[in-house]
Design brief:
Layout lengths: L2 H21 L6 H25 L5 H25 L4 H23 L8 H24 L6 H28 L7
Helix pairs in contact: 1-2, 1-3, 2-3, 2-5, 3-4, 3-5, 4-6, 5-6
Pathway: Lipid metabolism; Phospholipid metabolism; phosphatidylglycerol biosynthesis; phosphatidylglycerol from CDP-diacylglycerol: step 1/2
Organism: uncultured Anaerotruncus sp
Subcellular location: Cell membrane
């Protein structure tokens, strides 16, 4: 297994630790530990793609598992966000529905021997999601420490709106770009 694929697996392995720190007070400043774990996991997303392209180590495993690892990481965060009040359920439902849709298209394509790699719209969506998740965790931690100015919460909602818009756009882009798999 090459280094980029190992980094993808590390991202998946970090998910339970992220959730544990985010949802418990296991350690002092547990939310900051969650933020650190999420940031490290997010960085592995950038790093595995960079190394795979640079060293020409792009594999079908990586094309399938890299976006799946991203989906698992972000989905874990979003489900936790509903429970702790950082995101309404309808936002999470839109995001997760898009992920199921794109994954279904990829599975149909894989059944026909084709691999659909993440495109730019999906990468922008993922990057924006990861920024929003990091910001929301930091905001939640700070809100537990002090009263926060309303503009900080406004930025949270603006990032959430950007994520929803990019999620819908990239989902439509995948559907339209791969409509041949629906024609059968």
């Amino acid at each position: 297994m090459n280094t980029p694929n190992k980094l993808t697996l590390i991202r998946v392995i970090l998910i339970p630790f992220f959730v544990l720190f985010l949802m418990t007070d296991l350690l002092p400043a547990s939310q900051l530990w969650a933020l650190a774990v999420f940031a490290i996991a997010s960085f592995t997303d950038f790093l595995d793609g960079y190394l795979a392209r640079r060293d020409q180590l792009v594999t079908n495993f990586g094309k399938l598992m890299d976006p799946l690892a991203d989906k698992l990481l972000v989905t874990a965060a979003l489900i936790c966000f509903v429970e702790i009040g950082l995101a309404p359920a309808w936002v999470v439902i839109i995001i997760i529905s898009r992920e199921f849709l794109v994954t279904s298209i990829r599975l149909v394509a894989a059944g026909e021997g084709k691999v659909i790699a993440a495109d730019k719209s999906g990468k922008y969506k993922t990057a924006t999601q990861m920024v929003w998740v990091c910001y929301a965790i930091l905001l939640q931690f700070l809100a537990g420490q002090m009263a926060l100015p309303s503009f900080l919460w406004g930025l949270h909602y603006a990032l959430m709106a950007a994520v929803v818009i990019l999620t819908v756009y990239s989902g439509m882009h995948y559907v339209l770009g791969n409509r041949e798999f629906f024609a059968q």
